[in-house]
Amino acid sequence: MQKFVRFVEENGHQQDKKHTEDEEAATEATDLVESEREVILPSGPVSFEVELHADEPRALHEHGNRRLNTYRELGEAVFGPVAGKWAVLPVQYSLMIGLCITYSVTAGQSFKGVASDSCNGADCQEGIAGWIMLFGASQLLLSQVPDFHSLWWVSLLGAVMSVGYCSIAVVMSWIKAADPESKVVFSREDESRADYIFGVFNALGGIAFTFGGQAVLPEIQATLAKPPSTVKSMMKGIALSYAIVILAYYSVAISGYAAFGSGVSSDVLLNLTGSPAVVKAANMFVVVHVAAGYQVFAMPIFDMVETKIRHSLRNPPRPLTLRLLFRSLYVAGTTFVACLLPFFGELMGLISSIGLMPVTFILPPALWLKAKRPQGVVLWVNVAILAFCSCIALLSLVGSVRNIVVSAQNYSLFD
Fold first, then answer.
1. Model pTM score
2. Which of 60, 148, 207, 387 is deepest in the core (most CB within 10 A)?
């Protein structure tokens, strides 16, 4: 343990390490993992139960007096400084940026759903640019909050809103499905074979989108106080959050399909035609939820870039000035892209394929294989997870890109 800590402290931030030193870092990380019986990253299908239930589990990000508080630091500890950085940063930050864009589109649709009834039954891309910009204006204000600790109340409010709009969607969908006069069509006779196949590919990414929080698990865990062990607190939080996510989101998917069949929208709230006041309330719940989620995924980017700027400049700007300039530019950029590509379902598939699936389903077993070097069944299970999820990510990428191109042909920003 002490040897590992000394190695990280003396060499962790140097970028010109030789190949032999990279191998030494990986070896030290492997020794640490094997000696402490921990999980590198607790993710959905990569939850190694034998490790989760070990006595006194400890995470890789906690050793000695040093904590590896970011996904990048975890990658560098296992793969080495250079390989670790390039294995983690591209997929993690593309995911977080993509989620901010997708949340902006979601908020635009929900804002329009509150203001008018013209969205009902369609994805309502047309005319939502102004609503997306309104959401962007709210994020300009929230983005000036210094760090994660200052946003705890926003995250809590967002979680409550999520339960609220999911409950409304499920109840109203089942009421619609139970109506004997309701005629639901499940076939897609008017859809071409190509549209159907690529739609299925895109939907694979949409399902994986449920687990977007994996992108910032180390950063979130770094905010937890000790005692008790942050691992125990984190695992309790993950278990509770995933139980709620699976119950809420999959209930919405099942009830929405039962009520509206093949005509169900990517955002089922757009299909609801019951009490207008209740539907509008549900849409506002969505806005609050994604406003909180936007900040959760933007904060690590803010921290990384602002830290880099402060360390690179001899006379860096004041913290308030730096926050105002960079964070405003970031929000403006994500808002602009969201206005250009307001295709909620397709964006979910795209972001899942290039960011979420690698971070959630591909990178964790890769880290595990490198650090633990398992043998036998454990080895092949991890290899199977890597191969299967890589294929799913590729199919989702193909489907989402194709559908975005098709949708963009009939969309105009100024309509």
1. 0.75
2. 60
